[in-house]
């Protein structure tokens, strides 16, 4: 299996330099993590079972920032489900090249919603937000994986207030009011770590290699 090493200092500095190497056996000069060389060695049938990246150090539930293992928590809110726009939203992330590693339909409890939006507990709109999320219509909770998915996920979702969201973004194309803005996306690595851990168990996060992964994620 291959490991990717990024030093803490490099990460702190936002640097993207790292090395890849096989944990046992010869080193590889390839910057793109793994899979295909390793898969060839273990047989094609195993290709789909390989994790996209095996990290050293302590990856969180959100993988490792700025690597192909980075993960974001994306949630289609009750209005998106009710308006039957789930497929269209998933299509945007799939088409972009991100990999779906977990998905479930949930009618969230008040407790879960309070934990998810803990930072907004003192806002005047919090009560209405809580009522909306727990109205009984499910949300679609998802984890998407890929390089820069947290930042790009936010870009794809658009501004919090759909009135300010650019056309081409999800909120800019499908939503009108801030109270029904359709979708949530983690706003930082720390939020992604917290949110993925809140909505999913580690066992629910799939590790597999999608067929177009190298063609999408490789960065010469
Ligand atoms: P975002 O969802 O873009 O991360 P946020 O974290 O500031 O935005 O707020 C979470 C949700 O709370 C947001 O998607 C919709 C609701 N919200 C935020 N500001 C609001 C406001 N001024 N009035 C009503 N609802 C608001
Ligand atoms: Mg937010």
UniProtKB/TrEMBL annotation:
One of the record's GO molecular function terms: nucleoside diphosphate kinase activity
Pfam families, alphabetized: NDK (PF00334)
Span of domain Nucleoside diphosphate kinase-like: 69-207
UniProt keyword Kinase present: yes
Gene Ontology process terms (BP): CTP biosynthetic process; GTP biosynthetic process; UTP biosynthetic process
CDD domains tied to this protein: NDPk_I
Cofactor(s) listed: Mg(2+)
Active site residues according to the UniProt entry: 184
PROSITE patterns: NDPK_LIKE
Keywords per UniProt: Kinase, Transferase
InterPro entries: NDK-like_dom, NDK-like_dom_sf, Nucleoside_diP_kinase
Residues involved in ATP binding: 77, 125, 154, 160, 171, 181
Organism domain of life: Eukaryota
Enzyme Commission number(s) of this protein: 2.7.4.6
Record-linked NCBIfam families: PRK00668.1
Stated family: Belongs to the NDK family.
HAMAP family, alphabetized: NDP_kinase
UniProt-recorded name of the protein: Nucleoside diphosphate kinase
């Amino acid at each position: 299996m291959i490991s990717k090493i990024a030093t803490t200092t490099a990460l702190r500095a936002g640097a993207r330099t790292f090395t890849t190497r096989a944990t046992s056996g010869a080193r590889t000069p390839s910057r793109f993590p793994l899979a295909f060389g390793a898969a060839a060695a273990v047989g094609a049938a195993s290709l789909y079972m390989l994790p996209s990246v095996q990290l050293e150090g302590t990856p969180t539930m959100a993988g490792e920032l700025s690597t192909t293992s980075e993960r974001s928590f994306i949630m289609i809110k009750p209005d998106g489900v009710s308006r039957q726009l789930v497929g269209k939203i998933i299509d945007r992330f799939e088409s972009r090249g991100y990999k779906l590693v977990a998905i479930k339909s949930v009618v969230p409890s008040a407790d879960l919603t309070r934990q998810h939006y803990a930072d907004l507990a003192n806002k005047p709109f919090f009560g209405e937000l809580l009522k909306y999320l727990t109205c009984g219509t499910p949300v679609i909770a998802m984890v998407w994986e890929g390089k820069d998915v947290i930042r790009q996920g936010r870009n794809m979702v658009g501004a919090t207030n759909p009135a300010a969201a650019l056309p081409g973004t999800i909120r800019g194309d499908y939503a009108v009011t801030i109270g029904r803005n359709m979708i949530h996306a983690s706003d930082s690595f720390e939020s992604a770590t917290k949110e993925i851990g809140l909505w999913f168990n580690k066992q629910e996060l799939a590790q597999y290699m999608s067929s177009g992964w190298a063609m999408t994620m490789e960065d010469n």
